């Protein structure tokens, strides 16, 4: 895992966009983003039990698997959005970027590769893209039935109860 401030320079979303300013994992934790490096499947199972994740599936994002819809899908994953559930991803192979909004509404870019697991809290604005390798295989974990409906950022999602709860929780921790 490598975390840093996104450079906001125009260009392919799959490029590193590294500003050269690193972000410490403790800052990610303050945003509610949890990171683990997982060594074995039993470590995933232990974490799943601790956090009450009951279901899981796997997704492979690559041109060879997705064919003609790959470019469209990668672009859709990169739209800024939130979820009403935690988003949990364990990287089984390949690599990609999760960008999350800071409290100052800037992007923090998190590069993940095989063995990395990330938990994004419900209500945090984020986006995802593969890196230049155009390949990632990830396990998705869910507390209930698989649900990954993105709610794209808008005035409506700014007023979403999960977004409001996320902001309230972050403010309480900062105080």
Automatic annotation (TrEMBL):
Protein name (database record): Acireductone dioxygenase
Name of the gene this protein is made from: ADI1
Sorted UniProt keywords: Amino-acid biosynthesis, Cytoplasm, Dioxygenase, Iron, Metal-binding, Methionine biosynthesis, Nickel, Nucleus, Oxidoreductase
Top-level division of the source organism's lineage: Eukaryota
Binding site for Fe(2+): 81, 83, 87, 126
Stretches of the chain forming a coiled coil according to its record: none
Gene Ontology molecular function terms on file: acireductone dioxygenase (Ni2+-requiring) activity; acireductone dioxygenase [iron(II)-requiring] activity; iron ion binding; nickel cation binding
SUPFAM superfamilies reported in the protein's UniProt record: RmlC-like cupins
InterPro entries, sorted: ARD, ARD_euk, RmlC-like_jellyroll, RmlC_Cupin_sf
Cellular component, GO annotation: cytoplasm; nucleus
